[in-house]
């Protein structure tokens, strides 16, 4: 490793040691009776290309703003690259600059920000005032009224300066020079957009004489006695009152009283006041105790199961400058989707977010602002800052700023050192400091396999198989027996799993089953919460979401930045709907034959008294009757059987479906009464369909081709041309292709089979159909039109024989298909096996009975509700940021596509329900599109009716579909019934 001379004097922004002039970190709180002045709003701004910025004039005491005359205006908090200055850039692992720590490029975008402010009329005398920055990326130098206050790094951490001596009633000049690149950038290589700027609040806070320099709230809970113990340490001393508990105690004094505990399920907070001579600080105290005990992470004595997500702070217009509304919206969405935990990947969030977690109830793994992933590209992580003593003070500074800021939140139950930094003494130094400062919370770190600094064995993207081994404490041993014994004794979390990029993730239900089976497996955190797509418009003004590479970046990682459960505008994706179902905290099993419902309370702490249970009975998706179900207030972990009412009498014919729901009985802070928390259905087993009735028709040839009942076929190709008045654009024929999902494509570092690259290599996206026989003479089994084809790609001897057997009975046209692989061993799976047909564009309204309302795939179909749905074809599409296969409805018994006048085509399942997809572009067009605006509706509605689909898996970063969800090449047989629907032909 190259070494630099020890006396190398580096400019402050390249100096890896913590900045200068800042105050020691302390607890954050939203408000108190001390005066505060927000400095958010419009600032003067100028961007320059190098660290000198605009030069010295800007830093001076210049209330009239001569130095900044003619500058642009910028909104603080904000990122200049999202406000028309420069451009955002996305890289995952790579540093977008030469790696030569702690040096950064001379081309260092530097934003000079300046704001002139008056003090409020009544800004108090005495005491001091501090200027607080909640977050500036990545390095700042600050002047007030011409005097330099100091410099700092550590983008998503708070920094304060004492400024009382410099303040004057009017015309205070605050100048902040912000560098995009600094030594700190080496510690901030998180997988996200590089977004410089003053992106969190700037506040002037009065610190009256005798106000707390800092305070620590210790509020534990003893589940064996039901008592809480409260002690508030404060300098200087003061008193704490908790009116609801009748408490009035001195700081430093400890009191034990009966309380209701805080948990994420029951976020009980007690309002309190900390009063010192100088200030009254409102507190919200939550009593809870967390610890790792007997190899299990427990809160208040009980094992916790994390149903978590990784949350980056992201807003499509404002980047990481989040407002309160967005933070609250994130938590409401999480709570409404049964999520109970957040890992603040990979930096402490805006401090107000944690107040909301306290209030609404989420377990928080608070992660430090630290990632050095780019060093993984070098042999042995050469040069890694966490193993470079020059950076250790900065690492300790980061740990301290996080812990001191966030220590008083009951929701914060685990400290995480950072993400993907390999191993190093700097991490151990952080861990040692945190353990000393706050022994009340366990530590988490994932990226050092022997876990020396972690109280959890944590992994990301481990396969189901490996997770199961870990659950049984039977994982592969570490080389060092002592380290192995220690690791084997730790509780396990998947700090990241189920990569939610594009269509997916698949396999959630199978992970959840493992978490619920093995005590050691304490759940996980889906990667990740939201797609970081940025809004753009085409030259024609059509909006779309941009991703890496769309801003001319030299190095970038494409749409890997769009891998969330929410679309960029916070619309839930099908993946989130699936996650909600998979992690539902009540398990319901409906046994229609036995007339019982089994209910299991899967909460960790709450009984079921807060839920109201109901039942619904439908026949073929048509409501027949509904009612309530009396379920006892089961304790966590308990189960009971309750009777279903007798099946209601009905004239309706068709498949009966029972649905049982558990919904909130009363309004909560996060959802109204009636919000569904859990549900289950009992559908009839795939009953044999009643045979078609009516006269059997025989095929005949005439001048127009081949006729069979109401159908007409092309005599050469045997393709269905028309049915009744409906002229098809493309008759049904075997289809195997789907536009690869990000998970089909897999990540290029994956060793396992990656499915879509193989599909393409074999040529499944360019199949040719060679018609071998069109036989209208019928067969031994009846009056059938038989069409035989071999479907195969050019340049390959692999192919599939497809036999289409068409018959017509009454008004129905029946099709039985058999598929037989040919040509030896296939090296790949198949995307789908089914039929594709094309209808005139007017047939744009879909109705179906089967799974819905949203899409589903073999390993992501828990959330699919059997019912009757109606939707325009346009609404069947899921607009993944990078277009890819989407929109399939599972378990469909029949589907109809109609034109405005009512004419249409009905497709009913033969033996088995099918997968139904309809769109106004082909799979090939979907495959070719890079952004949603590349998809232009054509004049055909393309319909896929599939016998089978390949699973989704999570291979864009994790494992592919489980073996049972892979669609292997094998003989298949399936059937459909088609009929033309009345109404004038379109
Ligand atoms: C992990 C990493 C995350 C993200 C994810 C892939 O390795 O910790 O930050 O990059 O992979 O999306």
Helix content: 10-25%
What is the count of distinct domains? 5
The number of helices is 11
In total, the number of strands is 61
Approximate strand percentage: 35-45%
Measured distance between first and last alpha carbons:
74 Å
> What is the C-alpha radius of gyration, as a whole number of Å?
32 Å
What's the CATH first level of the largest domain? Mainly Beta
For the record, the CATH architecture of the largest domain stands as Distorted Sandwich
Principal-axes shape call: globular
Mean pLDDT: 96
Ligand names: beta-D-galactopyranose
- Sheet with the most strands, sense and barrel status: 10 strands, antiparallel
